Amino acid sequence: MSLTLYFHPLSSFCHKALIGLYDLDVPFDKRLVDLSDPVDRAAFVGLWPIGKFPVLQDEAQGLVLPESTIILEYLDARCASERRLIPRDPDQARDCRLRDRFFDLYIHLPMQKIVGDRIRPADQRDPYGVAQAKSQLETAYAIADGWVGAGPWALGDAFTMADCAAAPALFYANKVAPFGADRKNLAAYFARLEARPSYARVLEEAKPYLSHFPG
Predict the structure, then answer these.
(1) Burial of residue 30, with CB atoms counted within 10 A of its CB: 0-12 exposed, 13-18 middle, 19 or more buried
(2) Which of 1, 29, 88, 179 gives 20 to 30 Å between its CA and that of 62?
(3) Secondary structure class of 7 (helix, strand, coil)
């Protein structure tokens, strides 16, 4: 495959795609996009008009694929590795996709709501919306804490796309709404995610940019 990932090292959804790429050991090129640069932004929007990360370009197939879940599904179906991010068993595959969506929609997006509010001008902030986001995070933390109690991963023994989604969502969410002492399973699970070589590599590459996170 002739693949290029358009990304930024601070982007949480880019982390998700990178974890999968590294875990599957897929060869690819990286193209860091600076959206504050007009030339970079124009070129990226020309590729994907929505202008959001990540985007995977497969030149050999003439494909441009946005959205981290779609990217990982595409890679999982086509990579030569024996490793898989989506189980072959249809019931397990359904549970994997459900938990992938869960971490994206109920941890990742509320976290982004809180972070986005912090970078607004003070007179445009939304305390009610932030309170709602924190409440949703608490509910999601409780559900996830129950799921990962048996461990080691979100679906048990196999590391899957659900874990790729969980890692960046929990990393950033824990900075703005910490898990709390009563979420011991979740904290232990996140420690395992941080130690996973694929995610440890992503975090190491993100280090020069993490000071820009408004958490």
Answers:
(1) middle
(2) 88
(3) strand
Locate tokens 């290029």: which residue?
4
- Side-chain half-sphere CA neighbours of 121 within 13 A: 2
Preceding omega of 54 cis (within 30 degrees of 0): yes
Provide, rounded to the nearest whole percent, the portion of the chain with pLDDT above 90.
88
What are the start-end ranges of the H helices in 49-183?
68-78, 90-102, 109-118, 127-147, 161-176
- Averaged pLDDT, 47-66: 96
Contact 190, 153 (CB under 8 A): no
Distance CA 159, CA 149 (A): 15
* Residue-level pLDDT at 151: 83
> In Å, how far from its chain's centre is CA 15?
5
